[in-house]
Amino acid sequence: MNLFDLTGRVAVITGGNGGIGLGIAQALASSGCNVSIWGRNAEKNRSASATMAAGPGKVDTQVCDVTDPASVNAAMAATLGRFGRVDGCFANAGIGGGGRKPFIERTEQEWRTMFATNLDGVFHAFQAAARHMTERAQAGDPFGRLVATSSLASLYGTARNEHYAGTKAALNALCRALAVELARYGVTANAILPGWIRSDMTARVLADEKFVGAVLPRIPVRRFGEPSDFGGIAVYLMSSASSYHTADCLVIDGGYTAF
Fold first, then answer.
1. pLDDT at residue 137, as a whole number
2. In what order do the strands lie in the sheet with 10-14?
3. pLDDT, tens only, 194-227
4. Which of 49, 143, 166, 176 is spaced 20 to 30 A from 157 at the CA atom?
């Protein structure tokens, strides 16, 4: 038996059309999982889907704005219509804080916008997924995986990014609470905390030679992470191998926080 064979499973990946989300989706699809990519940009969704066309897992895409519960519920209904079930929800959609404005200059709108996407968006996606998972469990089919993309900013001080850090720390607590509440339905909940990863969100700062010179020597593996580095942990968390692993915050950072 292959513990990591995901044939027949279905996973939703919000923000799955680029960066870490795409790395997760590609790994799941290559392990036989059917994936539904939820993103706001239809063209990016199609481009992401094309990268998995030859894999064993089927790929669905939905235009979805996670800040809007009606949009999330519609995407969930469409995904269930396509695949008949959802076994995992990887809540990855999010925005960065930029790290440019001091806390005392933070506007109310900037604060609310950050929380609307990074925290409320996860609440909407997880609630829709958990509702389906618990109903399925009550019908005799217990299994579910809730995974949130958090950040090292949830654990360590991050100047001029307090609104971003606040949302990510909340995700850690949300996952722990859901792990306790939903365990009886066979549902696990965990957070993934990435280090410095190459993506559209980090492109500006990783192009700064001064920043790279200061940070790269602090990463023991001596490179920045890639979206593909999250494939293994995604497949593990989606699989039966992780059935006893819940309420955790898994740091994937090349050793950055240990040095």
1. 98
2. 59-63, 34-39, 10-14, 88-91, 144-149, 187-194, 249-252
3. 999 999 889 999 999 999 999 999 999 999 999 9
4. 176
Q: Which residues are catalytic?
A: 164
Question: Cα(252)–Cα(74) distance, rounded to whole angstroms?
Answer: 32
**Residue among 148, 23, 8, 22 nearest 91 (CA):** 148
User: Residue 172 pLDDT > 90, yes or no?
Assistant: yes
Q: Is the pTM of this model over 0.90?
A: yes
Q: Which domains does the chain have, with CATH numbers?
A: 10-258 (3.40.50.720)
Q: What is the pLDDT of residue 201?
A: 87
